[in-house]
């Protein structure tokens, strides 16, 4: 170790000054500011970065095939270099290499490529010992000089000689960030500190908005979830209605209950669906019932018998093997329910607790809902929309967060699905500038306008023209009024098209 050359602070600064190639500079900074081995730096993938916490997660293969992961904070200058590098990339995927091989994205660049460009800078600067290990060694020696605890340096560098216990030692990330900042970042001037306190932006720092981790949660539906849980406990059948994207399916997935749930995506292929439910029950909770009914008959013969059984008899068999209200039958999307589906739900509505969802249900097919409780989902209000936006975008770093939130709310009108989709669209942008924020559009949530009242007013005014024609003695008024009279007489049929046909 004593024979290894390293760069001092002046030499590091000179090296970074002469590097023009952005990729070269980024590789050097990964070794210089994070202490990475060259093999670790060139094999990094986009998913190895946690930009919300300003960390790079490095995977190292140890002896006996064990993979060790260590988290190293990013210096400000490395973060900004990454931001600039990402802004020049296209179609970023989480498992893409940060430095792909020129002729294939399936491989990363080689260490020989790194040694080659470092030799070029060796000759240009005359330092004679610029190599990957000298950069990594500079990281360690500079931290020791700055008083970084030895245990912290061991953790960040991941030396092989450290035992397993020390490798897994938990060191607060914030402390490591302070060490990184003290060693790598320039001190802010007093003028800049004063301007920053006054709320004046003094440095145009880029922010990276890439993250490949998602959470499952529910916002703005607490009352509805509570109602579903109460209905499940009481055995009350329930239908959830609402426009596209308001979260009906999500609500069916989110409530908690001790009841056992049987899930059906829809009621198309009804007989096959009922048969699959029976097989599921026979192979699970009701296996003892299958043994009583079918005895030693093999599985294929049982399937053949079920295939030949009518839908009505399949329903009867299913009702016999379960206790009343033992299961919740969760059915997503009953919008286009068939007469057979209506008959099925009417058959089992007293045997199962039925939870279903639909945008609309035709009135002539709503007979199965006569004993149902109804939950109507609407779009979120502004406060809940902002809460959802904050939750979904916690890991994004837009240039102007207030502009970002307001733009998403204006695009979504409080529709949760649109909020999800717009934010997901922003995730495809490594750098979210104000221009990028304004460019993103979503038209699926535009509100419908009911023109019935306007049509009535228009007909009424034309109808009045017929009587005005006598006062002003104008035949054209009389003709227009006559047309209005005909339309008025036909209004029952015309307005029949606007008659409510759906629940």
Describe the structure.
This protein is of the alpha/beta class. The chain folds into four domains: 189 residues, Intergrase catalytic core (hpI Integrase, Chain A); 156 residues, P-loop containing nucleotide triphosphate hydrolases (Rossmann fold), CATH 3.40.50.300; 58 residues; 47 residues. It is 50% helix and 10% strand. Strands 7-8-9-6-10 form a five-stranded parallel sheet, with helices on one face. Strand 4 and strand 5 form a beta hairpin. Helix 18 crosses helix 19, helix 18 packs parallel to helix 20 and helix 22 runs antiparallel to helix 23. It is flat. It starts with 8 loop residues before the first helix and ends in a 9-residue tail after the last helix.
Number of strands: 10
In order across it, which strands form the biggest sheet?
7-8-9-6-10
CATH superfamily of the largest domain: Intergrase catalytic core
CATH topology of the largest domain: hpI Integrase, Chain A
Main beta-sheet annotation: 5 strands, parallel
Number of domain modules: 4
Please give the share of residues in helix.
40-55%
- Corresponding CATH architecture of the largest domain: Orthogonal Bundle
Query: Uncertain spans, ≥5 residues at pLDDT below 50?
Result: 162-172, 499-503
Envelope shape:
flat
Radius of gyration: 34 Å
Task: Give the helix/strand class.
Answer: alpha/beta
């Amino acid at each position: 170790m004593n024979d290894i050359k390293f760069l001092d602070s002046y030499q590091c600064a000179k090296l970074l000054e002469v590097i023009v190639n952005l990729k070269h500079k980024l590789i050097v900074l990964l070794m210089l500011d994070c202490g990475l081995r060259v093999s670790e730096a060139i094999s990094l993938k986009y998913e190895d970065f946690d930009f919300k916490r300003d960390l790079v997660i490095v995977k190292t293969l140890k002896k006996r095939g064990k993979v060790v992961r260590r988290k190293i904070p990013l210096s400000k200058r490395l973060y900004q270099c990454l931001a600039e590098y990402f802004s020049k990339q296209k179609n970023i995927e989480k498992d893409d290499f940060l430095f792909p091989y020129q002729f294939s994205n399936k491989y990363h660049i080689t260490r020989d490529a790194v040694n080659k460009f470092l030799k070029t800078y060796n000759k240009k600067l005359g330092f004679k010992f610029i190599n990957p290990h000298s950069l990594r060694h500079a990281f360690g020696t500079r931290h020791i000089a700055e008083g970084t605890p030895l245990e912290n340096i061991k953790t960040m560098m991941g030396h092989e000689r450290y035992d397993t216990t020390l490798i897994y030692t938990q060191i607060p990330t914030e402390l490591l960030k302070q060490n990184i900042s003290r060693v790598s970042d320039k001190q802010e001037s007093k003028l800049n500190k004063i301007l920053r306190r006054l709320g004046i932006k003094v440095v145009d720092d880029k922010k990276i908005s890439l993250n490949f981790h998602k959470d499952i949660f529910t916002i703005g539906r607490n009352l509805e979830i509570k109602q579903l849980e109460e209905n499940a406990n009481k055995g009350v059948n329930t239908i959830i209605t609402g426009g596209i994207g308001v979260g009906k399916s999500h609500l069916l997935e989110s409530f908690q209950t001790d009841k056992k749930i049987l899930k059906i995506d829809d009621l198309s292929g009804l007989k096959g669906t009922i048969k699959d439910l029976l097989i599921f029950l026979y192979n699970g909770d009701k296996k003892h019932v299958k043994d009583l009914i079918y005895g030693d008959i093999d599985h294929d013969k049982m399937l053949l018998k079920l295939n030949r059984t009518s839908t009505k008899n399949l329903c009867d068999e299913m009702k016999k093997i379960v206790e009343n209200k033992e299961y919740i039958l969760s059915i997503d999307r009953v919008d286009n329910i068939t007469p057979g589906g209506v008959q099925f739900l009417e058959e089992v509505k007293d045997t199962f607790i039925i939870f279903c969802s639909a945008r609309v249900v035709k009135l002539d097919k709503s007979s199965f809902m006569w004993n149902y409780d109804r939950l109507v989902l609407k779009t979120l209000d502004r406060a809940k929309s902002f809460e959802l936006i904050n939750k979904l975008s916690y890991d994004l770093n837009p240039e102007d967060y207030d502009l970002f939130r307001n733009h998403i709310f204006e695009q979504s009108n409080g529709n949760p699905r649109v909020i999800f989709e717009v934010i997901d669209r922003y995730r495809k942008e490594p750098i979210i500038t104000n221009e990028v924020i304004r460019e993103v559009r979503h038209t699926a949530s535009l509100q419908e306008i009911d023109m019935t009242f306007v049509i009535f007013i228009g007909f009424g005014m034309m109808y009045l023209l017929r009587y005005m024609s006598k006062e002003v003695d104008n035949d054209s008024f009389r003709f227009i009024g006559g047309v209005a009279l005909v339309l008025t007489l036909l209004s029952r049929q015309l307005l029949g098209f606007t008659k409510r046909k759906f629940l």
